[in-house]
Fold this protein.
Amino acid sequence: MNDLILHHYDGSPFAEKARLMLGFKGLAWRSVKVPSIMPKPDVVALTGGYRRTPFAQVGADVYCDTALIARLLEQRAPAPTLFPADAPLAPPFAQWADFTLFWTVIPYTMQPAGLAHRFAGAPPEVMKAFAADRAPFTAGMTRQTPADATANLRAQLAALEAQLARGPGFLFGKAPSIADFAVAHCLWFVHSGGPVAAILAPYTALNAWFSRMQAFGPGRAAPPGPPPGRGRPPAAPAPWAAPPPGTPPTRGPSPPRPPATRPARWPRAWASRPARPSRSRPPTTAATRWPARWSG
Ligand SMILES: N[C@@H](CCC(=O)N[C@@H](CS)C(=O)NCC(=O)O)C(=O)O
């Protein structure tokens, strides 16, 4: 009943932040895959209306937002810490990354070339459904043009590069802090963007740091089994479902697509992720009605 459950989907940058923090802490967790766009009836029933990804669950307690999840993980495993005492600026810096850097990365990565890569082979309704689902997130925000986002991202990457080039390994010292995880998930999303990932190439210190961050992996997998509180037996794997746990992610040709009965599904490309040193993915212990490959 004390198990830590992460509700997430493969392609979510903030979920990647949570997975990497779990890996850094060496914590065991159970994985529940959630849909990447609405409707999410099971999610909103459990969270009381919060629809974002990821969220964590311990028994009847639900933790929304990765800033809170970080505090939960810190409580469960105080060492290694995400909040080093000698890095008081790490939490506000993380906030900067989670908002300012993230909202530069999104318009940069979702420019036409990035979108074409991410939604390659998917019917046009999929991209339309995604755009409609995410529109409320940017209401009231001035969305950067691809040119502005490119210029801003270059400036942000150059600053991060300069910081890391002079530092002892991580943004605020010899060990990572919450700030490193907040930056890492943003860059992870750029890495998964196909042609648009080329913007990262010149930043050698940043790329070396990114490899160190990825090496934390997603943490220890808990034994498979139905998660508490959901009561739904795992569905039989569909022919297009994710490979068995432990199978390394591939970037090969797409598997046969499921019948297009639910336009709100994600294309396979969304779930693509940058190469990660040999770590196995934790098993998915509960299936939603969405095939895992499409929930990323
Ligand atoms: N501040 C939140 C942001 C979470 C967030 O915006 N997640 C994105 C996915 S990366 C999301 O919820 N997208 C809509 C969805 O998944 O329904 C956090 O730190 O967890």
Observations:
- The CA atoms of residues 1 and 267 lie 34 Å apart.
- Strands lie at 4-8, 28-33, 55-58, 61-64, 220-221, 284-286.
- Confidence is low (pLDDT under 50) at residues 227-296.
- The longest strand covers residues 28-33.
